[in-house]
Amino acid sequence: MDVAVVSLFPEMLAPVAQFGVVGRAVRRNLARVIPIDPRAFATDVHGTVDDRPYGGGPGMVIRVEPFATAIAAARDQVPEGSPVVFLSPQGRRFDQATARRYASLPGLVLVAGRYEGFDERLIDIAGGEEVSVGDFVLSGGEIAAMAVLDATLRLLPGVLGDEQSAIQESFAEGLLDHPHYTRPEVAHGRPVPQVLIEGNHEAIRRWRRKQALGRTSLRRPDLLCDRELSAEDRRLLDEFCAEQSTVPPTA
Ligand code: 9D3
To answer: Is the CB of 138 under 6 A from ligand 1?
Structure first.
């Protein structure tokens, strides 16, 4: 997969493209990350990319040129028909389903903004979609682009081991993860839950499922809202809730 990233701070991408899972994808030639600097396409001597907003107000707006030229150059670097994605606080929320959709494509152009945002005509011209990574304020689109890049490229076949991808499959099913423990058996006076030590695999599976359902219900009730629970899940969640209001052993 080829991903061109249009950004005024192309150097910000280097660490993501070099290290970790994305770095491995790039080194294995499973992906290319191509930075495109719009300033390189500026026609005036100052390399101006922003200007004051029509209608007044604070901040600056990204001009149509040179970004339009930079996006065209980015499109030339990726397979024909690759979508253009603007990172923007006004976008649809990026999620795992979107990551899967992007990972199924041969290419993608990510456009990171700065200042107050893009001149709307830039989005119209490129015919792109806008995505946000969450309801918080970043200083620009670069970190959002890196999140999209990471979430997408790790899904490419061969990037993670078979084992890892199997684990990922089962987890990407819309519940929060259960708690994890490793040695020692007691840390800072806190023991590992006994069920995990006893080695009854069916009991462990039920305990983990109960914890996953319970945490999801406490921390992310939105994830359970439009979801039909199986009879077992219903019972496990009821048990979790009952245990919440009782004093746990060795509290
Ligand atoms: C005053 C209104 N703000 C919009 C909500 C101004 C503003 C805030 C942050 C304008 C641009 C930005 C820069 N943010 C991004 O480019 C961005 C972003 C984000 O801030 N949060 C979550 N996802 C994203 S994707 C791009």
So the answer is: yes
Tens-place pLDDT, residues 51-70: 999 999 999 999 999 999 99
Which residues have CB under 8 Å from 24's CB, separation 6+? 159
Are the CB atoms for 85 and 148 separated by under 8 Å?
A: yes
Higher pLDDT, 140 or 168: 140
Same domain? For 61 and 112 the reply is yes
* Residue 44 belongs to domain spanning: 2-153
CATH number for the domain spanning 216: value is 1.10.1270.20
58 lines ligand 1 (CB under 6 A): no
> Average of pLDDT values for 106-135?
97
Q: Are 132 and 92 in contact (CB under 8 A)?
A: yes
Round to whole Å and give the CA distance between 245 and 132. 38
- Ligand 1 proximity of 33 Cβ (cutoff 6 Å): no
Return the residue whose CA atom lies nearest to atom 3 of ligand 1. Answer: 116
Comparing CA positions, the residue from 10, 151, 129, 128 lying closest to residue 68 is 128
| Structure confidence by residue, pLDDT tens digits, 197-210 | 999 999 999 999 99
* CB-ligand 1 contact for 137 (6 Å cutoff): yes
- For the chain, percent of residues with pLDDT exceeding 70: 95
Measure 146 CA to ligand 1 centroid, in angstroms: 15
Q: With a threshold of 0.85, does the pTM exceed it?
A: yes
101 with 221, same domain? no
